[in-house]
Amino acid sequence: MSFSSKPPADARARAESKFHLAERRKSEADQALTEARAAKTAESQKTARLKALRLAKEEADRAAAAAAPPPAKAPAKRKLRVAATA
Fold first, then answer.
1. DSSP 57
2. Which residues lie in Basic residues bias regions (predicted)?
């Protein structure tokens, strides 16, 4: 029996193929994670911008309501009393 210290060429090729596949998957996972983080950041910024706009509009509406005169009240209606006939 002879033992060689050098692995067969096809074993080395398979190992390199697995390594490159793992590296490509890791690279794709890192890219997907980066894209997900960017999307989350963009969504957070959009939410903050819309909240600021909503709060500004609510404040403007409150200021306009405070500046406007209160609506005039309608005069109270008189109730008619009907005499009971027995």
1. H
2. 75-86
Backbone angles phi, psi at 63, to 5 degrees: -65, -40
71: left (phi over 0), alpha (psi -120 to 50) or beta: beta
pTM confidence score: 0.55
Q: How many residues appear in the chain? A: 86
Report which residue type is found at 36: A
In a domain, 62, yes or no: yes
Full domain range(s) for residue 59: 9-68
> In this predicted model, what pLDDT tens digit does every residue of 17-35 receive, in sequence order?
999 999 999 999 999 999 9
